[in-house]
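re the bet — no i am not wrong, look at it urself. input seq straight from the record:
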Amino acid sequence: MIIAIDGPAASGKGTLGKKLAAHYGLRHLDTGLLYRAVAKRVMDAGRRADDVAAAVAAAKTLDPAAFDEAALKTPAVGEAASVVSAIAEVRAALVTLQRDFAAKPPGAVLDGRDIGTVICPDADVKIYVTATPEVRARRRAAEYRANGRDITDAGVLADILKRDERDRNRAAAPLKQAPDAHLLDTTHLDIDAAIRAAIDIVEATRAGRGRD
């Protein structure tokens, strides 16, 4: 079984992806980390995030098993990742890696921004997770502060709005809900309620398809 989860920044798709993977005994890939890893490599090399050659070279040599998730989840890397992810050549370089991950038994949960539309258009279950920008900003700011970073909700909101605009309007694999994806709005849901809602979506979809 392949479950595709898409949605904007800080919508909760990463947490849902991990929880669903654990619940169903599937592998999990946070595809946003791929773009963050590319961005960090470019930054570490002293290059601009929109340096196509540097970004493509980084994308072709990624090893997800070696990712330092804490180092990748900083505001600066997140902003650079949004720029890197708009580069068509970078997205193309990472397509095979993501599809190969999804194809290996027993299946996988992938979360990102183009999983249901580009990476796994034939996924068994597609969920589009969203929440209001203000709620997403509060969640992301709380996450940063929990990690010892001094940051304001207003600053995070401005960053999220900018990333939403860039993600939805880029030419390469823009963020959008797949026509057959189930919408899950987590604005008024805590994590436990969101997980229950996601499991309900998966179960309803499997029941409709004869529980593949």
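see?? The two ends are 7 Å apart (CA to CA). told u. also The first helix runs from residue 13 to 24. so pay up
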